[in-house]
Amino acid sequence: MQNNVNILQTPNEQLTKHETMINESILNCLNKDNSIFQMLCKCIAFSRMIYEINDWHHAQYQCCFGYFYINWKGEKYALQAESHAENSMKLISYYLNSTSQQMNQQNSDDRANLLILCIVLLNYYTLAKSKIILKKQAEKALNKVEQLMDSIEKSKNSLENIDNYEDNSKQFDRYLENYYQQWNHCTLMRLDKKFYPNLQNLKVCIYCLYGKIAFECEKYVVSFDQYMQALKFIEKTYGPESKEMISVYHALGHVSVSFDINNPFIEYQSSEDDMKKSIDYFKKAYEISNKIYYKEESFRSMVDLIRSVYLLCTVYMKLNLNLDDSE
User: Fold this and answer.
1) How many CB atoms lie under 10 A from the CB of residue 238?
2) Domain residues for 306?
3) Is residue 5 part of a domain?
């Protein structure tokens, strides 16, 4: 059997190599789920060879596994994602207790805790998303995500610059490098690399997850408000015709036929006006997805376009049936 471990390289070098390869695979949008999975396994193995059992690196790689499962493998791996995120939280607690560090006692300007905050934030996001799929209580985890997002913002003087990691200025590069050089093997938690989610995208995901939870609990007004906040945030951040708008317009189309905004607490049958509002949202999704498809001609853009057409046609059919019944 072929041995994939290069005996000429130290565990430290191997760990650095696999972390870099993971980020490169994601940066180049390569469809290498199995390769990334194997590289994460090797990161855990080399980490155990290098660091003591109470070191934060072990929590980092468990966190990466959980996020990998829920973000790349999909909903059917929600249980595995939840398990890895919970294990990571236990390891982080062990690390903080063993080093006598308590995050709630740290100065908000102390940047030494940024990596730990990033690990905990990603864990709670993974837990929230997986618990929604597993029909468990996810709202508590989402509340933690919001709190940690605030903590990360307070731990840096210029979050906006870090979010915009397309900035190529030498000053910006030096600032990031000076911080991350304090830590060994933190590549996967770096906010300027591609494995860790962009914080702006994460904010959109939080709004949408809140909207989904509220919708499933039949809190339609709350759901509508959350999706509208997501829409405004996306429009401000990415522009009114960005692809991020499509899924939110789809959600608003569904929610808008689920309640009467004037009487949200009574049992409701969607009216002609509500269906027309729903059609407006689905039309906007169709217009954006159509433009993006003819520009990109990618598989993802084709799926968005087909889904938009299907949803739009479905509501049109329901509206016509309702009009026929009323006649």
Assistant:
1) 15
2) 206-326
3) no
221 in any annotated domain: yes
Distance from C-alpha of 283 to C-alpha of 151, rounded to nearest angstrom: 39
184 plus 102 within the same structural domain = yes
Domain endpoint, select from 143, 176, 197: 197
Q: What is the 3-state secondary structure (H, E, C) of 82-126?
A: HHHHHHHHHHHHHHHHHCCCCHHHCCCCCHHHHHHHHHHHHHHHH
The pLDDT of residue 107 is above 90: no
Q: pLDDT tens, 73-106?
A: 888 999 999 999 999 999 998 888 876 644 444 4
Name every residue whose Cβ is closer than 8 Å to that of residue 238 and which is 6 or more positions away in sequence: 244, 245
The Cα–Cα gap between 316 and 247 comes to 19
pTM: 0.75
The pLDDT, as a whole number, for residue 266 is: 44
